[in-house]
Structure formats: C-alpha cells, structure tokens
Amino acid sequence: MLKEKISIDEFDGKRFQVRLIEPCDNKKAVLTHYLHNIHNGVSKHYKTDAINVLKEYVSYKLDEENTNILAEEALQQFLFEVENVPFPTPANYTFKFIDLFAGIGGFRLAMQNLGGKCVFTSEWDKEAQKTYKANFGEVPFGDITKEQVKSYIPDNFDLLCAGFPCQAFSIAGKRGGFDDTRGTLFFDVAEVIKKHKPKAIFLENVKGLRSHDKGKTLETILNVLRNDLDYFVPEPQIINAKDFGVPQHRERIYIVGFRKDLNISNFEYPKPLKKKVTFLNVREKNVVPTRYYLSTQYVQTLINHKARHEGKGNGFGYAIIPNDGIANAIVVGGMGRERNLIIDNRITDYTPTTHIKGIVNREGIRKMTPREWARLQGFPDNYIIPVADASAYKQFGNSVAVPAIQATANKILELILSNE
Question: Which of 24, 118, 161, 166 is the catalytic position?
Fold first, then answer.
C-alpha cells in the first residue's frame, strides 16, 4: 500500500497539484541507498528501481516544460536529507562493506571511522530504522530472509558485517553443514557470503553462542565458514567492551574470516587498551529529569526481590553502580536497567513527572538515561536519539559496542588492504 497526500501549490505563477506518495516496505530503502551512492558506481545497482520510486513519490500535473525542473528540485531536497546527517560517508573511502542486522548502526559507525563506505544495509525493526536514517541518511532494507531484499545487495564489496541472532540449528546430517542451517538467520548470512564472496567477514554474537546447544551451534557455523564457504577462520574470541575504552562489562563473541585466495593464514585479535574508564566518564553533566528517579515503592520492591533471591542462594537482583565503577552489561528488558542503577544526589525537585506509586526516593537512586547507555556503547554525543526512551533502551541494549568493533575491524583491514 502507498499512502497518498494531495496538496495544491504554485510554481512560476502556475497552479499545480503535487501528489506525495510515501513509499512503504523497501521503497524508501531503495531511494535512500541510490541517493547515498549517487556519487559512485554503486548507485547504478539501485538506479532503475530508485527512479521508479521517485516517480511514484512525487507526481506532478504541470506543463511538460516545468516537470523536469520540479523533479530536479525534489531530487535535490532528497539528496539534502540523505547527505546532511551527523555521520556521512567518508569523502575518500578506502573500502566498501555491507551492514546486516544493522540495528542502529554500531558496525557502520566503526567502519566509517576507519574509512569505509556502506553500500547496503538491512534491519527489519521500524523504530531502529528511524534511528538509523536520522544518523546515516539511509533507510535500511527490511527482512534479509526475503530473496527480493537479498537481490539488492551489490557485488564487489570488501567486508560483510553481521550481528546475527543466536538460533539453534536442526542438524539433519552428521556433518552439520550449510544445508543444516536452513531456516535460521545464519543461513541467510551464509547465503550472502556464498553468492558475493567478500574478502572478509566479521560476525558478532552473544557470549553464550560458544556453549549454545552443547557447542553444536558454533561448531556448525565454523564448519560452514571454513569448509562449505572456503574461508580461513581463526578461533573465535570473547571480547569485552570494558577493555576498549567504555565502562561496561560486556562480553561478546567475535568471528572473523578471510577468503582463502587472499592467502591470509594468521590473525591476531586486538589487545586490550591500557585505559581506565569509569561510569563517571559517561554520566550526564547536568541534573536529569525527575522521571529517571525511582519511587520509594519501586525501590522497596527491588530490595524485597533481591532479598528473596539471596535467601535461595541466588545472586539475582538490582545493582547500584558507583561513579568509579564499571556498568554491568546493558541488555533489553527491565533487568538491564535495574542491574545498572546509580546514585545521583544532584536532584533538587522531587515533584513526580509521571504517575508513580509512592514518592520519589530521597537517596538519589535513578536509572541511567538513554544517552548514558549510548555512551556505554561508545556512541558519540552527536548521535541522534529520535525515538522514545523505551525504544532507545532497547536499541542501545541490542547494539554492538562501537570501540571494540572498531579495534577488531582495524586488524581485519590491516590484512585485506595491505593484501591489495
């Protein structure tokens, strides 16, 4: 379905009708990918469909001689929206990459910092798409399991990046190969690798992938990459974000691989930085709104919940991070926030701004803000957060830690660029 709006305007003294049609599904992605690549050869991959979308997007009832002028103005406006963003493509990029399961662009931010040009991105979550577009000027394509979406991936990119979800495989054969991964999102990643054969791959997943399904899941992934797809894949490594300049204890498994014809047979993951950072480095500079402070009743509920678990010998429950401490991993869901409470006594106005049971606590206990979560993941302060808090927590909780990704990607690029 296309959403249509009608307006009457004037151009050069003549009245005309403009029919603005908002593209749905992947139409916005096609158009923004085309415009984002308009200054390089990749744009030809999207051009035919993008021109058709543009014709649908703005339709004119004008004398023929004026139509082209107006279309050019419309194109310039779209270009402005695509290029006037906080994180544009580097002017003199040195490599091309694609961004699968892109989330809000943590991989992309790291790659652009290293001189990379993104030529395709996909992310199905609509709220994450809004955040991605606000910062990079592109709307990601949707469901990567759809063949139509895969058909938009251009050839000749250097690096494939993917933070794909962890799923169990139904291993039908004894070997645990390519066909055994069908129906999972890793299969779609593998399919893209098989077709396009990028020089290198960089996959990120939760630490639990190593032990998932008694190790069979990771074993199958490595078997597919090494034997079915013919990539040199060193042993995956658990990387902790706190070792790369952000005050968050966040362990994730990284898997890298190199096409075997590049004759790369050795890879070293980056060494931890000797840089001490604490929560105080990312804390809000000013007093935050009262809505981030917990009510007395909420605090008591958390205390009771923790006491119940301690009585059973469990370590579950809320945690308060000191200013000179390191945050626990930020994750989706209430516990991600409750395991990362802080004490901030700068509050002066205890008037509730939301409907709460009880009153605002006087100990200064509050949740971290979405901006503090962004900083814990290494996102700079000019990164735009255009969505409501609930979506922002989810997006940053699901994101990769940018500095750790960037340090590892730098090691990958040292090999594939020097190989050229």
Answer: 166
